Amino acid sequence: MSKKSLALAAVCTVFAASGLALLVPQRQVVKAGASDEPSYASNGDMQPPADYREWIYLSTGIDMSYSPNAMQMDHSVFDNVFVNPAAYRSFLATGTWPDKTVMVLEVRGAKSKGSINQRGHFQDTATMGIEVHVRDEKRFPGKWAFFEFDSMQKNGTLIPEKAPCYTCHAAHGAVDTTFVQFYPTLLPLAKEKNTLSASYLKEEGSRPTN
Ligand code: HEC
Questions:
Q1: What are phi and psi of 68, to 5 degrees?
Q2: Of ligand 1's atoms, which has the minimum distance to the CA of residue 131?
């Protein structure tokens, strides 16, 4: 086959595949907004911020647990945190989050056997869960809301306001219900701009120094 007909064949394959995709019934609207602002389906679900992996990376926690007697898990997990670029730029200027901030927490299992690795952990290719924290002042009575996603192919469901997510974040988040104390590039900025929450400052003040 000539180069030209090869290219043509490739184009036809793509065309046929996209034609096929049109025939597959679409159960849910999953198209994310063109910008990095949050967008929602008519039933209140959140559309997936599908390109969050191209956003700003804040941190990775490993095996974080929030109670002294939390059960020891038999598998380690990583949680990776990302934020939309517009909100990040605003944080750099002000030390706090603007309206339409979208933060993504992505959980991945830790693996230790693979390739040349002898010790330590690396992240699995599969995600174990994706949660979103979004600030949308007009939409949510408490300004912020949490959504849970199974994958970036499906819309996410709103977590009700009575869930412990809201209480822990409000009581312990260092800046406006978010855990900036664990995001190393943001904490110094929040200190500098005096945007740390009173409850966080109190917790830090009462912490033993050693
Ligand atoms: C007991 C406290 C606690 C509870 C309950 C909790 N979180 Fe968090 N959350 C944290 C901590 C600590 C971090 C920082 C994680 C890190 O540093 O990697 C965090 C980070 C996040 C982030 C990243 C953005 C941010 O706000 O800093 C999201 C999204 C999130 N949690 C969602 C949830 C959801 C959804 C629930 C409920 C199902 C929940 N969390 C319950 C403590 C909590």
A1: -60, -30
A2: 29
